[in-house]
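REVIEWER CHECKLIST
Item 1: Sequence provided? yes
Item 2: Single chain? yes
Item 3: Sequence as submitted:
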Amino acid sequence: MFLKRIEMQGFKSFADRTVIQFDHPITGIVGPNGCGKSNIADSVRWVLGEQSAKSMRGDKMNDVIFAGSADRRRVNMAEVTLVFDNTNHILNDDKDEIEVTRRLFRDSGEAEYLINRKNVRLKDIVDLFLDTGLGKDSLSIISQGNVLSFAEAKPLERRGIFEEAAGVAKYKKRKLESLSKLERTKANLDRSNDILIELEKQVSPLKRQARKAEIYREKKKRLEEIEISVLVQDIESIHADIETAKKALFDIETKTTMFSTDIQINETKLSESRRQISILDREINDLQDELMKKFNEIAGLEARRTELDEKRKYIVETGTNEQKAKQLAGLIEEAKVEYEDRQKRLDNLNTEIRLYSQQLSAAAANIVDKRSEYDQASNRLRS
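Item 4: Structure as written out by the authors:
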């Protein structure tokens, strides 16, 4: 594994896109003062995860973005890409070439980290180079003054430098992470024990509450079963009442139809009886008129008979007109017969009138009864 290429744009003094190609592993970068040697080393450390603006020789991290010059405007973004040869797969990736990119935006201050043009976290980049000898603090990048600082470093600091160079920093970091996890686990265990003790205190009340809840559920279930049973019985009873009411309604409707028919028939009979009574009344009136005429005729005949009797007596007494007297006697006898016949007819008419009157009264009473039954049935039907 070695660094094949550095691509920079907007980083410190490299305002334009600059590509530095390394065909073979390199030992160092040399050049006159101010040519950008330190900026190249800073760009490598910056991509590898350097977060200290002071280490990047600035006051704040935005100072790594090209700030402009007399003839160039400043830019709003700094971007550096390191391209590594990974044919021996030292880096934990299957690709033979790995690109690691870091960007920083001036306006928002946001940073982006990419591996093979895919957004990742800073931690992913640090983990990628862990135990490879590369890193922002590794001895693979030695800037001006690092040798002097190494010579003047304290023993503990010097030990850290050797551990980094020997590749044991990865294990120390993992050890620290493991110890930290162990401490967190121990703290969680202690907290779990405290919670367990507290829960044990609550077990008995919770058991009682659980038993009460179980009893409640059983009783509620039983109550629901009883309510369902009662509801089913009520529904069946209601259905039975509905069927009974339907049957009663059908009977009432049938009776109502029958009553209506009977009423119509009786009303028809009543109308016919009234018509017949009217006819009989007219006949009676006619007969009474005729009877009065006959009475008048009879009265006249009686008077005539009396007169004839007087004349007959006179004739008999005088012995004259005997034949004429016999004729008058015959006329009187005929008048009596006709009178008796008319009297008989009058009696028959009176009898017939009484009969029709009785029939009319019976029909009217029957209509009243049927009307009352019809009204009662209608009231039951409405209720």
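Item 5: Key structural point noted by reviewer: The helical segments are 37-47, 122-129, 146-152, 155-166, 169-318, 322-382.
Item 6: Recommendation: ____
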